[in-house]
Amino acid sequence: MSLNHQKAWVVAVDMGYGHQRAAAPLKNIAYGGEVINANNYKGIPKQDQDLWHDSRKFYEFISRFKKVPIVGKPAFDLFDKFQEIPPFYPKRDLSDPNLQVKYMQHLIETQNWGKHLIEKLEKKPMPLITTFFVTAFMAEQFKYSGDIYAVATDTDISRSWVPVDPEKSRIKYFAPSKRAYNRLVRYGVKEDNIFLTGFPLPIELLGQKSLNILKKDIGQRLTNLDPNREYINRYDETLIAQLGSSNFPSKKRSHPLTIMFAVGGAGAQREVGITLTKSLKNRIKKGDARVVLVAGTHKDIKSYFKKEVAGLGLEKQLGKGVVILHSANKEQYFRKFNRALRTTDILWTKPSELSFYTALGLPIVMAPPIGSQEKFNRKWLFMIGSGVEQENPEYTDEWLFDLIDTGWFAEAAINGFLEAPKYGTYNIQKIISSKPEECLQCKTEMMY
């Protein structure tokens, strides 16, 4: 996909992975080829940095604290109330601001939080695309003269994404799903300010508008996901029509069955990765299966995985049958992660922003959700038929292969490819270039 058109300021925050993962595919349109992190850019005032730091540390602490017996879950549930997504039905006006919006707006107004950043960007006004709602509020408060766009990062979103007075706001939204679009309308955002784009996905995993790279990868993946060809033989004409005859799954696999386990930024579910690896130990030793354990940028998680894998007697398989994916910084991590996805067959993760990666023909095994938005992401994956809840990880060797033998994972992969939006990165470029009519897979084609 060619993205050599209108440039923009692309702004994320360094809090977990979600907001930066959404921004990373937009680097090609970012001015100077740089994604700016609002909480740690060069020259950030100490007061601003402290405000960001406190909010990040609290989130990571509360995510881990949830596991503490008796008191952990109630404490997390109380925190989650501040960002809770209300039931969608009955249809009603949900425009009244919640406590989180009021508090964030109060900090912006009374502490001039973010003013330095916005004044810095104002020196060269151009479209501003941010993957975090607070940054959009800052731009509006301090009268940024360019267009302000916010990329929503979940299939359904809380009222926190919309400013106190949505009727008067000029913030425009890139909605990743039909439900997020409709939710923004309920929150009082004018429909002229909402674009149904889909979530921005890495261009290197898509290829051209024809999705040539993606279709090739899916064809190879299906060979592993359906070794008995239960689904492949039943829907051969559909697969040829959707993937092209050259990408129709062959009977010879290009790589071992590969399960990628991606823990969250706070590493809250790392133990599950070791448990499933233990269950697949014999298959790994035989070369029939491979596990990719994603440690992200966390050295402690990498060390934990390495120690535990060695304890399982799989030290000789490290780097082959068991891969620990780790990088020193997020930019390198995202590049490694994307490369590893090309030969990943099943993505095992909590239903975070990675839920959108099912559009890459990846079936999702869902770990328990953390937070209100992840519960809605889980529901969305169920609706499109590309996600399944994890069974007991101790018995992964049994239930995972039962599903593989029936061809279910192959069907889930195709459901994700067909039903989830794939053109978010492309559509965002078209919109900031004033060509929304050229968007692909938008309103009429996106069901959920």
CATH architecture of the largest domain: 3-Layer(aba) Sandwich
Unreliably modeled segments: none
CA-atom Rg in angstroms: 22 Å
What is the number of independent domains? Answer: 2
Class by SSE composition: alpha/beta
Widest sheet, order of strands: 2-1-3-4-5-6
Portion in strands: 5-15%
Mean pLDDT: 92
CATH homolog superfamily of the largest domain: Glycogen Phosphorylase B
The first-to-last residue Cα distance is: 25 Å
* Strands, count: 12
Note the main sheet: 6 strands, parallel
CATH third-level topology of the largest domain = Rossmann fold
Keywords, separated by commas or semicolons:
448 residues; 2 domains; alpha/beta; Rossmann fold; 6-stranded parallel beta sheet; 18 helices
Indicate the topology.
Blueprint: E1 8-12, H1 18-23, E2 30-37, H2 46-65, H3 72-81, H4 99-111, H5 115-122, E3 128-130, H6 133-141, E4 148-151, E5 172-175, H7 178-186, E6 194-196, H8 212-225, H9 230-234, H10 236-243, E7 257-262, H11 270-279, H12 281-286, E8 289-296, H13 299-311, E9 322-326, H14 330-341, E10 346-349, E11 364-366, H15 372-384, E12 387-389, H16 396-406, H17 408-419, H18 424-432
Parallel strand pairs: 1-2, 1-3, 3-4, 4-5, 5-6, 7-8, 7-10, 8-9, 10-11, 11-12
Protein name: DUF6938 domain-containing protein
Domain DUF6938: 251-425
Organism: Candidatus Falkowbacteria bacterium CG10_big_fil_rev_8_21_14_0_10_39_11
